[in-house]
Amino acid sequence: MTFIVKSMTTFCEDIKQLVPVFIHPDSNGYNPLIIRARQQFLSVFGKNLSVEDILQELWLSESFLRPPSEVDIEWTRALLLYESITRREKRLLGDVFLAPEGKGLLYTLLKPVRKDTPDTRSQDAKKKESAFLLEIGFLGDEEEVRYLNDFATLVAVGMFGENRKAKWRPLQSYSIVFDKFSHSDAAKYVTADTVSSEDTALAEMFEDQVLREVAIVVKRSGGMLAEDVVKKVTNQNEASNAIEQLVQTHLLTREYVIICCQTSNQINRMTSRDAVDKMAEAGARCSCGGAIADERIEELFSPTSSLQRMLNQSYWTTAKLVCASTTWCAR
Question: Of the spans 62-76, 90-104, 131-145, which averages the highest pLDDT?
Fold first, then answer.
Protein backbone atom coordinates (compact mmCIF):
# COMPACT_ATOMS: atom_id res chain seq x y z
CA MET A 1 0.00 0.00 0.00
CA THR A 2 1.34 3.41 -0.98
CA PHE A 3 -0.23 6.34 0.86
CA ILE A 4 -0.58 9.49 -1.25
CA VAL A 5 -2.08 12.94 -1.03
CA LYS A 6 -3.31 14.29 -4.36
CA SER A 7 -5.07 17.64 -4.70
CA MET A 8 -6.48 19.91 -7.40
CA THR A 9 -8.32 23.22 -7.58
CA THR A 10 -10.87 25.09 -9.65
CA PHE A 11 -12.40 28.57 -9.64
CA CYS A 12 -15.90 29.40 -8.54
CA GLU A 13 -17.01 32.85 -9.64
CA ASP A 14 -20.56 32.74 -8.28
CA ILE A 15 -20.79 32.10 -4.55
CA LYS A 16 -24.26 30.60 -4.99
CA GLN A 17 -22.55 27.67 -6.67
CA LEU A 18 -20.80 26.72 -3.44
CA VAL A 19 -23.95 25.62 -1.64
CA PRO A 20 -24.39 22.21 -3.35
CA VAL A 21 -20.69 21.36 -3.08
CA PHE A 22 -21.34 19.62 0.24
CA ILE A 23 -24.78 18.25 -0.61
CA HIS A 24 -24.35 16.60 -4.01
CA PRO A 25 -21.45 14.26 -3.05
CA ASP A 26 -23.36 13.26 0.09
CA SER A 27 -26.27 12.01 -1.99
CA ASN A 28 -23.86 9.90 -4.08
CA GLY A 29 -22.12 7.88 -1.41
CA TYR A 30 -19.51 10.33 -0.10
CA ASN A 31 -20.23 10.88 3.56
CA PRO A 32 -19.34 14.41 4.88
CA LEU A 33 -17.80 13.53 8.23
CA ILE A 34 -17.72 16.96 9.88
CA ILE A 35 -21.30 17.77 8.99
CA ARG A 36 -22.42 14.28 10.07
CA ALA A 37 -20.64 14.70 13.40
CA ARG A 38 -22.43 17.98 13.95
CA GLN A 39 -25.70 16.37 12.93
CA GLN A 40 -25.29 13.58 15.49
CA PHE A 41 -24.27 16.02 18.20
CA LEU A 42 -27.40 18.10 17.68
CA SER A 43 -29.59 14.99 17.65
CA VAL A 44 -28.60 14.40 21.29
CA PHE A 45 -30.45 17.60 22.08
CA GLY A 46 -33.48 16.59 20.07
CA LYS A 47 -32.66 18.56 16.93
CA ASN A 48 -32.97 16.26 13.93
CA LEU A 49 -31.63 18.38 11.09
CA SER A 50 -30.83 17.51 7.50
CA VAL A 51 -27.40 18.17 5.96
CA GLU A 52 -28.85 21.20 4.24
CA ASP A 53 -30.19 22.53 7.53
CA ILE A 54 -26.86 21.89 9.22
CA LEU A 55 -25.09 23.93 6.56
CA GLN A 56 -27.53 26.77 6.99
CA GLU A 57 -27.18 26.78 10.77
CA LEU A 58 -23.40 26.51 10.59
CA TRP A 59 -23.03 29.38 8.19
CA LEU A 60 -25.54 31.56 10.04
CA SER A 61 -23.84 30.96 13.39
CA GLU A 62 -20.47 31.84 11.89
CA SER A 63 -21.96 35.05 10.50
CA PHE A 64 -23.11 36.48 13.84
CA LEU A 65 -26.56 34.83 13.63
CA ARG A 66 -27.79 36.99 10.80
CA PRO A 67 -31.32 35.85 9.86
CA PRO A 68 -32.20 35.00 6.26
CA SER A 69 -34.92 37.72 6.20
CA GLU A 70 -37.16 37.73 3.14
CA VAL A 71 -34.49 37.19 0.46
CA ASP A 72 -33.89 33.95 -1.34
CA ILE A 73 -32.65 31.42 1.25
CA GLU A 74 -30.14 29.89 -1.19
CA TRP A 75 -28.57 33.27 -1.90
CA THR A 76 -28.50 34.14 1.80
CA ARG A 77 -26.58 31.00 2.68
CA ALA A 78 -24.05 31.66 -0.04
CA LEU A 79 -23.69 35.30 0.94
CA LEU A 80 -23.12 34.44 4.58
CA LEU A 81 -20.57 31.82 3.60
CA TYR A 82 -18.79 34.43 1.49
CA GLU A 83 -18.70 36.91 4.37
CA SER A 84 -17.48 34.23 6.74
CA ILE A 85 -14.56 33.33 4.46
CA THR A 86 -13.51 36.87 3.60
CA ARG A 87 -13.72 38.15 7.16
CA ARG A 88 -11.96 35.18 8.70
CA GLU A 89 -9.34 34.01 6.27
CA LYS A 90 -7.58 31.91 8.91
CA ARG A 91 -10.62 29.66 9.31
CA LEU A 92 -10.80 26.48 7.27
CA LEU A 93 -14.16 26.12 5.56
CA GLY A 94 -14.75 22.73 4.05
CA ASP A 95 -15.37 19.14 4.98
CA VAL A 96 -13.82 15.70 4.97
CA PHE A 97 -15.65 12.97 3.05
CA LEU A 98 -15.41 9.22 3.48
CA ALA A 99 -15.07 7.48 0.12
CA PRO A 100 -17.46 4.61 -0.74
CA GLU A 101 -16.54 1.40 1.10
CA GLY A 102 -14.20 3.46 3.26
CA LYS A 103 -11.45 3.41 0.63
CA GLY A 104 -9.78 6.71 1.43
CA LEU A 105 -10.69 10.21 2.50
CA LEU A 106 -11.53 13.19 0.32
CA TYR A 107 -11.83 16.80 1.31
CA THR A 108 -13.14 20.15 0.12
CA LEU A 109 -11.60 23.47 1.09
CA LEU A 110 -12.85 26.91 0.14
CA LYS A 111 -10.40 29.80 -0.11
CA PRO A 112 -10.82 33.42 -1.16
CA VAL A 113 -8.77 34.09 -4.27
CA ARG A 114 -5.59 35.99 -3.50
CA LYS A 115 -4.46 38.58 -5.99
CA ASP A 116 -1.24 38.15 -7.99
CA THR A 117 -0.93 34.41 -7.43
CA PRO A 118 0.09 32.12 -10.30
CA ASP A 119 -3.51 30.88 -10.53
CA THR A 120 -5.10 34.29 -10.80
CA ARG A 121 -2.45 35.62 -13.17
CA SER A 122 -3.13 32.77 -15.54
CA GLN A 123 -6.82 33.65 -15.65
CA ASP A 124 -8.29 36.54 -17.57
CA ALA A 125 -8.64 39.85 -15.74
CA LYS A 126 -12.43 39.60 -15.75
CA LYS A 127 -12.53 37.39 -12.66
CA LYS A 128 -14.75 38.77 -9.95
CA GLU A 129 -13.10 39.95 -6.76
CA SER A 130 -15.52 37.67 -4.88
CA ALA A 131 -14.24 34.56 -6.65
CA PHE A 132 -13.23 31.52 -4.65
CA LEU A 133 -10.71 28.82 -5.13
CA LEU A 134 -12.21 25.43 -4.43
CA GLU A 135 -9.64 22.81 -3.49
CA ILE A 136 -10.42 19.11 -3.36
CA GLY A 137 -8.10 16.24 -2.56
CA PHE A 138 -7.71 12.55 -1.86
CA LEU A 139 -5.84 10.86 1.00
CA GLY A 140 -5.35 7.13 0.84
CA ASP A 141 -3.98 4.21 -1.12
CA GLU A 142 -2.56 5.15 -4.50
CA GLU A 143 -4.60 2.37 -6.10
CA GLU A 144 -7.83 4.05 -4.99
CA VAL A 145 -7.04 7.52 -6.36
CA ARG A 146 -9.78 6.99 -8.96
CA TYR A 147 -12.21 8.16 -6.28
CA LEU A 148 -10.80 11.67 -6.64
CA ASN A 149 -11.91 11.87 -10.27
CA ASP A 150 -15.36 10.59 -9.35
CA PHE A 151 -15.57 13.06 -6.47
CA ALA A 152 -14.44 15.91 -8.74
CA THR A 153 -17.24 15.08 -11.17
CA LEU A 154 -19.85 15.13 -8.39
CA VAL A 155 -18.58 18.45 -7.02
CA ALA A 156 -18.58 19.97 -10.51
CA VAL A 157 -22.15 18.82 -11.15
CA GLY A 158 -23.17 20.30 -7.83
CA MET A 159 -21.57 23.62 -8.72
CA PHE A 160 -22.38 23.97 -12.41
CA GLY A 161 -24.95 21.34 -13.30
CA GLU A 162 -24.72 18.61 -15.91
CA ASN A 163 -23.98 20.86 -18.88
CA ARG A 164 -20.74 22.45 -17.74
CA LYS A 165 -17.43 20.95 -16.65
CA ALA A 166 -15.12 22.38 -14.04
CA LYS A 167 -11.54 23.14 -15.10
CA TRP A 168 -9.52 21.31 -12.48
CA ARG A 169 -5.79 21.87 -12.19
CA PRO A 170 -3.12 20.41 -9.90
CA LEU A 171 -2.71 22.25 -6.61
CA GLN A 172 0.17 24.71 -6.64
CA SER A 173 1.73 25.95 -3.41
CA TYR A 174 2.27 29.70 -3.33
CA SER A 175 4.71 31.87 -1.42
CA ILE A 176 4.48 35.67 -1.61
CA VAL A 177 8.19 36.06 -0.79
CA PHE A 178 9.24 33.55 -3.47
CA ASP A 179 6.86 35.09 -6.01
CA LYS A 180 8.41 38.54 -5.49
CA PHE A 181 11.88 37.07 -5.82
CA SER A 182 10.95 35.19 -9.00
CA HIS A 183 10.09 38.51 -10.67
CA SER A 184 13.23 40.32 -9.52
CA ASP A 185 16.28 40.93 -11.68
CA ALA A 186 18.37 38.80 -9.32
CA ALA A 187 16.35 35.65 -9.99
CA LYS A 188 18.14 32.95 -11.97
CA TYR A 189 16.56 29.58 -12.67
CA VAL A 190 17.57 26.23 -14.05
CA THR A 191 14.61 24.40 -15.56
CA ALA A 192 14.53 20.61 -15.65
CA ASP A 193 14.37 20.48 -19.43
CA THR A 194 17.83 22.11 -19.66
CA VAL A 195 19.51 19.41 -17.55
CA SER A 196 21.04 16.83 -19.88
CA SER A 197 21.64 13.14 -19.25
CA GLU A 198 25.38 13.95 -19.26
CA ASP A 199 24.80 16.47 -16.47
CA THR A 200 22.95 13.91 -14.34
CA ALA A 201 25.72 11.34 -14.91
CA LEU A 202 28.37 13.84 -13.81
CA ALA A 203 26.24 14.80 -10.81
CA GLU A 204 26.39 11.19 -9.64
CA MET A 205 30.19 11.49 -9.56
CA PHE A 206 30.13 14.57 -7.37
CA GLU A 207 28.46 12.63 -4.58
CA ASP A 208 31.93 11.24 -3.84
CA GLN A 209 33.45 13.52 -1.20
CA VAL A 210 37.10 13.08 -2.25
CA LEU A 211 36.33 13.72 -5.91
CA ARG A 212 34.32 16.79 -4.94
CA GLU A 213 37.16 18.12 -2.78
CA VAL A 214 39.66 17.69 -5.63
CA ALA A 215 37.34 19.45 -8.07
CA ILE A 216 36.74 22.39 -5.73
CA VAL A 217 40.45 22.81 -4.92
CA VAL A 218 41.49 22.87 -8.58
CA LYS A 219 38.62 25.17 -9.56
CA ARG A 220 39.53 27.70 -6.87
CA SER A 221 43.20 27.75 -7.84
CA GLY A 222 42.61 27.85 -11.58
CA GLY A 223 45.37 25.28 -11.98
CA MET A 224 47.41 23.21 -9.52
CA LEU A 225 50.30 20.76 -9.50
CA ALA A 226 49.39 17.16 -8.71
CA GLU A 227 51.42 17.04 -5.50
CA ASP A 228 49.72 20.19 -4.22
CA VAL A 229 46.26 18.82 -4.99
CA VAL A 230 46.95 15.69 -2.95
CA LYS A 231 48.08 17.78 0.02
CA LYS A 232 44.80 19.74 0.02
CA VAL A 233 42.53 16.67 0.15
CA THR A 234 41.43 15.01 3.39
CA ASN A 235 41.78 11.44 2.12
CA GLN A 236 45.09 11.60 0.26
CA ASN A 237 45.09 7.88 -0.57
CA GLU A 238 42.01 8.32 -2.78
CA ALA A 239 43.06 11.62 -4.35
CA SER A 240 44.91 10.08 -7.32
CA ASN A 241 41.88 7.97 -8.30
CA ALA A 242 39.62 11.01 -8.05
CA ILE A 243 41.96 13.09 -10.21
CA GLU A 244 42.10 10.39 -12.87
CA GLN A 245 38.30 10.10 -12.90
CA LEU A 246 37.94 13.86 -13.38
CA VAL A 247 40.46 13.79 -16.24
CA GLN A 248 38.71 10.87 -17.97
CA THR A 249 35.36 12.68 -17.84
CA HIS A 250 36.92 15.88 -19.27
CA LEU A 251 36.37 17.89 -16.10
CA LEU A 252 40.10 18.46 -15.63
CA THR A 253 42.82 18.93 -18.23
CA ARG A 254 46.27 17.46 -17.63
CA GLU A 255 49.46 19.20 -18.74
CA TYR A 256 53.12 18.58 -18.00
CA VAL A 257 55.15 21.42 -16.56
CA ILE A 258 58.94 21.71 -16.77
CA ILE A 259 60.28 23.38 -13.61
CA CYS A 260 63.83 24.68 -13.30
CA CYS A 261 65.65 22.93 -10.43
CA GLN A 262 67.72 26.03 -9.69
CA THR A 263 65.04 28.77 -9.75
CA SER A 264 61.83 26.69 -9.29
CA ASN A 265 60.31 28.68 -12.14
CA GLN A 266 58.04 27.06 -14.70
CA ILE A 267 59.88 27.23 -18.00
CA ASN A 268 57.45 25.34 -20.26
CA ARG A 269 54.11 23.48 -20.38
CA MET A 270 53.35 20.58 -22.69
CA THR A 271 50.09 18.72 -23.36
CA SER A 272 51.67 15.25 -23.10
CA ARG A 273 54.62 13.49 -21.55
CA ASP A 274 55.69 12.31 -25.02
CA ALA A 275 56.13 15.93 -26.07
CA VAL A 276 58.42 16.51 -23.08
CA ASP A 277 60.47 13.40 -23.92
CA LYS A 278 60.86 14.54 -27.53
CA MET A 279 62.15 17.92 -26.32
CA ALA A 280 64.72 16.12 -24.20
CA GLU A 281 65.75 13.87 -27.10
CA ALA A 282 66.16 16.94 -29.29
CA GLY A 283 68.64 18.37 -26.78
CA ALA A 284 66.45 21.24 -25.53
CA ARG A 285 67.81 23.02 -22.48
CA CYS A 286 66.43 25.02 -19.59
CA SER A 287 67.13 28.75 -19.33
CA CYS A 288 69.69 27.92 -16.62
CA GLY A 289 71.61 25.81 -19.12
CA GLY A 290 70.64 22.43 -17.73
CA ALA A 291 69.22 19.67 -19.90
CA ILE A 292 65.44 19.34 -19.95
CA ALA A 293 65.76 15.71 -18.94
CA ASP A 294 67.45 16.84 -15.70
CA GLU A 295 64.72 19.29 -14.68
CA ARG A 296 61.55 18.57 -12.64
CA ILE A 297 58.58 17.33 -14.67
CA GLU A 298 55.25 17.75 -12.85
CA GLU A 299 51.63 17.16 -13.75
CA LEU A 300 49.47 20.29 -13.78
CA PHE A 301 45.66 20.04 -13.59
CA SER A 302 43.29 22.83 -14.69
CA PRO A 303 39.48 23.05 -14.52
CA THR A 304 37.51 22.81 -17.76
CA SER A 305 34.39 24.85 -18.50
CA SER A 306 32.32 21.74 -17.72
CA LEU A 307 33.78 21.56 -14.22
CA GLN A 308 33.18 25.27 -13.69
CA ARG A 309 29.54 24.84 -14.71
CA MET A 310 28.94 21.80 -12.48
CA LEU A 311 30.35 23.57 -9.42
CA ASN A 312 29.00 27.09 -10.00
CA GLN A 313 26.09 27.63 -7.60
CA SER A 314 26.24 23.88 -6.89
CA TYR A 315 24.65 23.09 -10.24
CA TRP A 316 25.51 19.41 -9.73
CA THR A 317 23.01 19.24 -6.85
CA THR A 318 20.30 20.67 -9.12
CA ALA A 319 21.08 18.05 -11.75
CA LYS A 320 21.00 15.35 -9.09
CA LEU A 321 17.62 16.58 -7.84
CA VAL A 322 16.19 16.59 -11.36
CA CYS A 323 17.44 13.04 -11.88
CA ALA A 324 15.90 11.87 -8.60
CA SER A 325 12.54 13.57 -9.28
CA THR A 326 12.22 12.27 -12.84
CA THR A 327 13.11 8.76 -11.67
CA TRP A 328 10.42 8.97 -8.98
CA CYS A 329 7.81 10.33 -11.40
CA ALA A 330 8.55 7.53 -13.87
CA ARG A 331 7.70 4.86 -11.30
Answer: 131-145
Q: Percent of the chain beyond pLDDT 90?
A: 18
What's the predicted TM-score (pTM) here? 0.47
- Domains in the chain: boundaries: 3-182, 192-329
Would you mind telling me the total number of residues written for the chain in this entry?
331
192-329, what's its fold? Arc Repressor Mutant, subunit A (1.10.10)
Tens digits of residue pLDDT in 89-110:
445 578 889 888 888 899 888 7
Find the mean pLDDT for residues 230-254.
92
Q: Residues 162-174: pLDDT tens digits?
A: 777 778 887 766 6
